[in-house]
Amino acid sequence: MSKDKSSDVKNIVTTGPPVAGLFSPHRDNLLEPRILTDDFQRCVECGYCRSVCRVYDVTYSELDYAGGRNRILKALANKEISFDKEGIVDSIFRCTLCGNCREVCPVGIDTVKVFQKFRKDAIHKGVLPRKLGILDERVGKLKNPYNENPDDRFNWTKDCVPAQKALKRGIEVLKAIETGSEKKKYRVGYYVGCTSAFRNTELAIATCTILEKLGIEFVLFPNEWCCGSVSYRTGLEDHIHDLVKHNTKMIRDFGVEDVVFSCSGCFSTLSLEYPRLLGEELGFNLYHMAEFVPKYVKEHNINIKYTKRTKEDPLVVTYHDPCHLGRYMGVYDPPRELIKMIEGVKLVEMKHIRNMSRCCGAGGGVKTLYGELATTVATNRLGESSNCVEILRADRLKEAEETHSEWMVSSCVFCKNNLYQAANESNSGLTVADITEILQDCEFIKEE
Amino acid sequence: MDKTQKLEQIQSFTKEMQEIISPSDFSTDPYEIEVTSSDLSLLPKYHYKFKEEFRASFVIRPRNTEELSKVMRKCREYSIPVTIRAAATSCFSASSPTRGGAIIDTRRMNSVHKIDVNNMIVKCDAGISWLKLMEKLLDYGLAPTCYPTSYKASCLGGYVASAGKAGIGVLKHGSIRDSILSVTIVKPDGTIEQISEESKGELKLDDIVGSLGIYGAIAEVEMKITHMSTSLEIVGYGFKTFSKAFEYYLGLKENTVNKPFFLSLSNKKFEKLAHKTLPSRNFFVYGVFLDNPEQTGKAIAYAKEIAQKYDGLSAEEWYLKEKWRDIADTELNLGRLCRNPVFQEYWIADERCQAFYEKYAKEIKNVDYKNAFYIMAGVEGCNRIKIFGLSDIDNSREFFGIKAGFNKLAKFAFSQQDSLYSIGVVNTFYFLKYNREKVEYMKKLKEKLDPDDLVNSYRFIKAKMKFWRVQLLFAIAKFLYRLG
Fold it and tell me: Whole-prediction pTM value?
């Protein structure tokens, strides 16, 4: 049977093996797991997590997937092995926290939660890789992880008129708050995030352009600080309380109802971690642009038309689910709905999508901790780790290329940044972009 | 050897090994050793009584058969015990070290060498995962003839080494042994040999399949494959009594119309311990048919017809589909409700399943832990029966009480000429007790190939824990459980 016959096979209506491959179990009819304080104790070492772990696929080290890490935790808890501050670093931090293991775990262990705690506990015990220490210092002093002057946070607005207007509105509101005078209320605020502000400014510009095109009078938050995501993911949870309090107060003081994000990391951090850390609801709505735009256009009967292509000759794109938007926040359909709403754009799916989407390799602090190292020698663990980031993103890019799409779009600035690097390194014919970069070249036409 | 000499030996071995293998594939990292010295079996270190040394000193990851050969040769040169490991989904410590030494992790050996579509053969590395193999074969519209329900995590080599006789596809196509054409083995002295049906040497295919690697590392496998069928149909019926359920189960198993692709029988507790909504009735028979539409149509018609005879009540279609989708998770889902699910697997002939079930039912009358019963159809007129007890190792009275119960059932099985489904380090004492002839044969072969017993030691032919000691411990455990 030739390779062409495989399409017949893949048309078999079967929900199970061998066609269906590896996927997460249906949770609806499963009993809720009995969660333990030390939930790693429930790990049955089945190895399903290893089958989805992208880092393990590179290193083949038993330390590098959830089940292996759980074994370490068990051994530490039972005092069968000693805690070596230097030796244990890789087993703690060489994980992108993508959450794919959590999806496939048959006993329902929240592996992301377990490993976040592992990192936090390790920090308390004095484990602090040098780069992490530097990151911590930067975030603490400069309120961003990029060693940039905080006063330069909104320099990017110079190239974007809608952004300038939004910033001006924001400054006026801030002044009113500071002086106690009456402030104008705006419904929508755009939380930019550090990566869009200091690195991928094109996303911030695109987001502002889109909001303006939609006719939304939004504000920027001039006193925005880092959301704390990278610090939080790397175990420095205790160091972000001032960021959490500041950002929450800032948004509350502004009085906006809806806060939109272009960065999935910021979005998931404020949505999931801020209420938990504060012990209370935030009191405002949070939306990623990939949710906000389809919701808004549906409510206002707006059609979207991509200006650079036509219905007959659409731009073929494939969508990469960011871990923080997808697995963390459960947002899978809205970005797809949005792409399908755009006349002149066609969506083709990759093999691994939705909750089984493959991580680009940038998350969990892995790129921060390991990504800048030279990769010429891959004989040591750290060398392997930096190789790991490159290999993961190259694999994901390859998967996108196999769809024969023209563009690979995502809705996370970290993913875009990382995959863009991969595309450059391999001279790929694929354009890597954020979903906002398509939308900024669209017309938004209100239906009469 | 004193400490200094030992250290020198380790240093010399490490240096020479790093000339054979990439430094990133050789590790003495204590954390890596800690996790790689474990396998799926519960508390492998608890089983220390079964082992001389439960923790290895090295983890080595060869990338192909040639590297594996060099590694084995070097280990032999230094008299370093080796444990061959892939996915390590053995539940009975078959993949964990017993004499320390080196763990040879074969997961990097995961290439498909050849897919011969005309002759329907695949040749691949033994360390390949079932998922990867299936993916490659599906590109050609092909599939393995059989595979275990642990396919989401396990590797081909393990199924061969444990002679998988129950699982998906075995009723239709035969066991893994039936599909194997040849095995490339790296013997304890490092020599590479391809063993097929025609081989005239001292090792035969039947020796290697199911021997847990005691004669050497399974490096490559050449086996039959099958066309992927296009029609899948599922039946699932609830029954009031075990005897009716089992008769129906046998009716499906033995039918000549179309053998099931997968067949199981579970008690209500098994379904209940995992699911919110489940089929009614006390026993549930589940059958999957995969063939061309005409055949599956006939099979379903037959299955429905005989279900009437035994007063079967059909489960809802969504439940049947979901169960197939999650068939690999079915046995693991029980772990959602407890810290440590404990289980034992028995290999019971069709005609003795009723008696076995009655024995089990009698045993669990006086227990207070959650338990479950699950049969999966196998070849040779036998079935893999899996008994579960949900527990917590911190509750040692209950934990060992459960194991004592399992031990009683094991002895019952052996007394009925049945056995355990899989043997590992922690249950080799049963094999030694009840299979003396086979033990003698295996010992002789082992002595020829591995006189120093360096490769996968303490499986089948030698046990540190004697049968009588284990019985004494279980008797005490049972007493303490009852006292509690």
Answer: 0.92
The predicted-structure confidence for B143-179, as pLDDT tens digits, reads as follows 999 999 999 999 999 999 999 999 999 999 999 999 9
Q: What is the spatial distance between Cα A117 and Cα A122, in angstroms, rounded to a whole number?
A: 8
Chain A, window 6-35: residues with a beta carbon less than 8 angstroms from a chain B beta carbon: 6, 8-23, 25-26, 29-34
Q: What single-letter amino acid sits at B399?
A: F
Longest CA span, chain B: 75
The three-state DSSP-derived secondary structure of chain B is: CCHHHHHHHHHHHHHHHHHHCCHHHEECCHHHHHHHCCCCCCCCCHHHHHCCECCCCEEECCCCHHHHHHHHHHHHHCCCCEEEECCCCCCCCCCCCCECCEEEEHHHCCCEEEEECCCCEEEEECCCEHHHHHHHHHCCCEEECCECCCCCCCEHHHHHHCCCCECECHHHHCCHHHHEEEEEEECCCCCEEEEECCCCCCCCHHHHCCCCCCCCEEEEEEEEEEECCCEEEEEEEEECCHHHHHHHHHHHHCCCCCCCCEEEEEEHHHHHCCECCCCCCCEEEEEEEEECHHHHHHHHHHHHHHHHHCCCEECCHHHHHHHHHCCCCCCCHHHHCCCEEEEEEEEEEHHHHHHHHHHHHHHHHHCCCCEEEEEEEECCCEEEEEEEEEECCCCHHHHHHHHHHHHHHHHHHHHCCCEECCCCCCCHHHHHHHCHHHHHHHHHHHHHHCCCCCECCCCCCCCCCCHHHHHHHHHHHHHHHHHC
- Stated length of chain A: 448
Q: How many CA atoms lie within 13 A of A427 on its CB side?
A: 0
* CB-based contact, A427 to chain B, within 8 Å: no
Q: Which fold has domain B3-105?
A: 3.30.43
The arrangement of secondary structure in B231-420, i.e. its CATH architecture, is 3-Layer(aba) Sandwich (3.40)
Class of domain A302-446: alpha beta
Quick: pLDDT tens for A8-59: 555 555 667 877 666 777 678 888 888 888 999 999 999 999 999 988 988 8
Would the pLDDT of A7 be above 90?
Answer: no
The ipTM of this complex is 0.93
Amino acid in the structure at residue B167: G
Distance from CA of A381 to the nearest CA of B (A): 7
Q: Which residues of A touch B322 (CB under 8 A)?
A: 15, 26, 29
Residues of each domain in chain B carrying CATH 3.30.465.10: 112-227
Q: What distance in Å separates residue B90's CA from the closest CA in chain A?
A: 9
Domain B112-227, second-level architecture: 2-Layer Sandwich (3.30)
Confidence of residue A371 (pLDDT cuts 50, 70, 90): low
Fold of A149-295: Rossmann fold (3.40.50)
